[in-house]
Each structure stands twice: as structure tokens, then as C-alpha cells.
Sequence to fold (656 residues):
Amino acid sequence: MNAVLMRCVAVLAAMLLQASAWAAEPLPSWQDGPSRKAIIAFVESTTRAGSADFVPEPQRIATFDNDGTLWAEQPVYFQMFFLMDRVRATAAQRPQLKDTDPTRSIMAGDIQGALASGEKGLLELMAATHSGMSVDEFHAQVLEWSEHARHPGTQRRFTDMTYQPMRELLDYLRAHGYTTYIVSGGGQEFMRPWAAQTYGIPPQQVIGSYGELAYRLRDGIPTLIKLAEVGLVDDHAGKPVAIQRFIGRRPVFAFGNSDGDLEMLQWTAAGPGPRFVGLVHHTDGKREWAYDRASKIGTLDKALAAAAAGNWVVVDMKSEWKQVYPDR
Amino acid sequence: MNAVLMRCVAVLAAMLLQASAWAAEPLPSWQDGPSRKAIIAFVESTTRAGSADFVPEPQRIATFDNDGTLWAEQPVYFQMFFLMDRVRATAAQRPQLKDTDPTRSIMAGDIQGALASGEKGLLELMAATHSGMSVDEFHAQVLEWSEHARHPGTQRRFTDMTYQPMRELLDYLRAHGYTTYIVSGGGQEFMRPWAAQTYGIPPQQVIGSYGELAYRLRDGIPTLIKLAEVGLVDDHAGKPVAIQRFIGRRPVFAFGNSDGDLEMLQWTAAGPGPRFVGLVHHTDGKREWAYDRASKIGTLDKALAAAAAGNWVVVDMKSEWKQVYPDR
Fold:
């Protein structure tokens, strides 16, 4: 009984704190523009008892892409910086690769050279550097990197290049009974170690691309070993497939920023009843980056056309976000 | 604000109802034997603030096998009855199979004959009858079956052959902040349609074997189609692999009943800090079935030895359960 009462008090306290935070100003880093208004109108109409658009709490599933939607993705997806870090740390074990691309470019810190050497070599390096260790060991490598590595342009930690307005949106949705998921092309085990602290999203709500795992007794101890074999590429049509596999329910709220998110957004929009579909449009070349159709990273072309046709919400980062990154 | 207050009141009301239910008698269908005592001692010590064994709520992950652990599994896994139902319903579309086994035996209602015809033919029938339709259409078939089909021995609905003591255990764990998962060799999409109502377990916490899915536009409408290709066999070493893939955290509490659960139980037991590992032992030939080492379905041999070596809790169904199935 004590445990129940304590949990109850804790829940109440958290709710009252949250309530006072909203009373102050919901989504404070958003200008009071069309996107903020649309978000608040949707959340209120789907959570107000008696509303025609009311959505019961178990069905309040919200899915977010990560790269370019919750954190930045230029000049390359941030997992590539982790990959380069791992290549440099383990190059001594791969002497035969040191004089060939992409390893040579990576060792020289030449991102564009590494990219120019082609996708195949990079995917092989990805498989090689992300496998062979236990999941726990891999998590430790990611955490160490996320704490110390800096973005070459901003000199910020990569987790400090998450978007403050989107973090507020995650909090706002959760405070209204939504369950928030990441559905990203990035590696699931690459995101899990820092997603809880950074986004408030626990590991079971972090869905991403993943490799196969092997269960083995290592020195008699049960261990899960990461293998090089790809299990799921959680991009394009892989996203609705992963949503069904992991969640088993169609989202009522989804946010992306690129053509890789199109199928997730279509799948969300096609459900019955109220649906919210949003795109982050990177329009701020000064505070962040400005790109869409012509960019190789985060190409936004077909999804932008679909947004216009489907009346999806397109966030103009430059005019709608008061602040891009969190204050440090 | 109104929404917050309403949620708060609802949470409070649910907690008080729950609290009064426990005050009456926790786990009422369990005899006050060693298993019930061990469960209550573990849950209290891991959830009481200040306890040396306290486990923070996000880490309170409990995983349960389904066949033989949450519901019965004799004379064959219940999904086999669904398979037979589907074969009979669709035999007209497969005239070339009607005169060969296992279809011939299934059409004649001869389970043992179907089983005797070999695993390969049954797996092919499983793939054939569980694919080609949308996930929604498959769910409708499962729901229709679960509402109308009857077990040939007990004449009960299959969902009425879930174990009342285990359903109480799921409730008891959740009331103490545990998140309950199914981790079953059975089909994920076969369990999801009825698991929420029967066990209180929502689709995102139902992990099982699954086939691949294809995202397609069918008459212009985004649709997820079930394919015959196997994605994961969630049995033996597949269970800890699935736990990492879906949950990303090691359980602190796990329950199974057969050697197919051994790796999940080992993986759970090997974690640091307090861990509860339990086995349902089918010892009640009168109210249910009595079987272990020699049974082809739900073989319990190596896991029973591991339980003895590891001091796991082994539930003697005959002496420890006052009631097996729910009252109807």
C-alpha cells in the first residue's frame, strides 16, 4: 500500500509540475505561427474528453524520424562521425585497409573524400566497426563518443545539436498521454544509449535500422553479440513495416523531414480518424542549414509535394523556431 | 488543464481500486505456497523505496512465454487449431492439396495424422495460410476464430484456457510498476488481436515469431501485406535476441514453461542485481495436463535441470493453483 500511495503522489507531483509548465507557455521555442497553432489544435482536439476527434490514450502513438527531424544531419548523418571515430580507433587492427579509401580519407579527416569513395565501402566499414562486440560493449563505445565527440562545424556535442522545439514537442505530446517513438534510418543500438536522457524516449521506443544478433555463452556468460549481417533497414517502406513489427498500431501523429520518411507519413495519413503529419523544412542557412530537393543528405522532394497535396504541416525552421539548439 | 486533472483523477481512481483489490488478497488463485511467497517477496523487495533490491520503474521489465505459460498448449499449440481452421476455410482454393497430407488429415479433423505427416508440410501450410492478406484482414480472421472456435477437449474458447493465476500475476506486476511483455514462439500477429483484452498487454508489448511484411499501395491505399517469408523464430536463442531488438533492456522478471524458454531465462538470470526466474510445471493431469521431459509439445527437460541448479521458482500447478482457468 505504501508503494501505491508513493507512486500516486509521484504521478500527481509530475502532473502538477507539467501543468504549471504548460500554463506558463506550451512549446516556448516555437513562434506562434501556423505549425505551433496546428500542433496545439490537434493535440487539444484529440485529448479533450467529449471531443469529436477524441483518441483513447492507448492509440495515441506518435512517431518521429531522428536525423534532420530531432537533431541535425549535416554535412553527413552524425552516425558517420561515430563510424569515423571507430575506424580511427581500430585502424591498427586493419593495416591492410589503411592505404585504401574510404579508410585513408577517414584517417585524414576528409569526410568528402570518404563519401566520394562510394557507398559500398562505407557500408562495409559500418558493418565491420559495428559488429563483433557485445551489445553492452557497443553501447559503451557510443556513450563515450557522444560525451566527447564534437561536430566539426559547431564544435557542439552531437546531442547538443538536437532541436529544442522538437524536444518541447515530445514533452508536450507525452504530457497529453501520447507515447513517443523514434523511427529512424539510423542504428537502433546507436541511438538507444543516449535517447532516454536526451529525448526522454526509453530504449523500447527507439526503433531504427538494426543488425542481427547472436546469443552466445562467452566464458560461460550469456552474451548478445552484434553481427555484421543487416536485419532491417528502417528507411522508406521499412518504416511502416517496422512500425507494425514493433508497435502493432498505426501512429496518429508522425513527423519527418525527408523522402525517407514519405512512406511512414503516408501510412500515418491514410489511417481513419484524425491524423497529424508534419515535416521539418530546413530553411535556415544561418542558424542551421538550408536544403531540400538538391541535398544528397536528407533529400526533401517527393515528401514536400505530398505535404502540399495532403495539407500536411510543413515547419519553416527559419521563421517558426525562436531557437534551434538547446542552451548549453 | 482540464485534461490533466481528468487524467490525474483517472489514475488515482485506478490506483485506489487496485489498492483495495490487493488489500483484499493479492494473487487469490494461488495457494499460499512457495511460489506465491517468492513472487510477493521479490515484487515487494524490488519496489519498496529504500530497499537494497529496489529496481527503478523503467527497469521493471517482465517477460512471459505464452504457450504453456499463460495459456494451455495441449494436445498441440493452439495456433495449430487456427491453422486447421484456415486450411478448411481456404481448401477450395487449393484443390491440389486436398488429397495429400497434412491437408487431408486436417480436413478430416485428424490432428495426430496432421502432426505425423511431418513438420515441413505444416510449416508450409502455416506460411501459406498466414500470408497474402493485409495485417488488418489477418487480425479479423484471428478475432473471428478466437470468438467462435472451441477446444476439442474442454469445449472452452481458447482464450478461456488462459491461466487465471498467471493473469493475476500480470495484474499484480503491473500494479507495482512492472511492464509486462509476451515473448512467445507463437505468431506475433496471431496474439495481438486478443492479448489486450485477455491479458491487458497492448500490441507493442506482444513479441512473437513474425513473417516479413511488404508495404504496398493497393488500389492507391497504403497497405501492409503479410508475406510467407519468415522474419524471426522467437524461440530458444531467438528469445533473448528478440528481447534486445524490441525492448533493449534485460528483463528482471521472466516466466516460461519449456526448454524453448531456457535461453530467455538464462539471459534474465545472468543480469546483475535481483532477478526472478520462474517455470510453470504442468503437474495436473486432472484439471489440465501432466507432462514435462517426454512431451513433444512443451518439452521441459534442460530448463528443469537449470531451475534446480539456479534456484529458480518452479510452480507445481497441481498443488499451488487453486483454480486453473478463469470462471466463465
Notes: Chain B has a mean pLDDT of 93. Residues 67 and 77 of chain B are 7 Å apart (CA to CA).
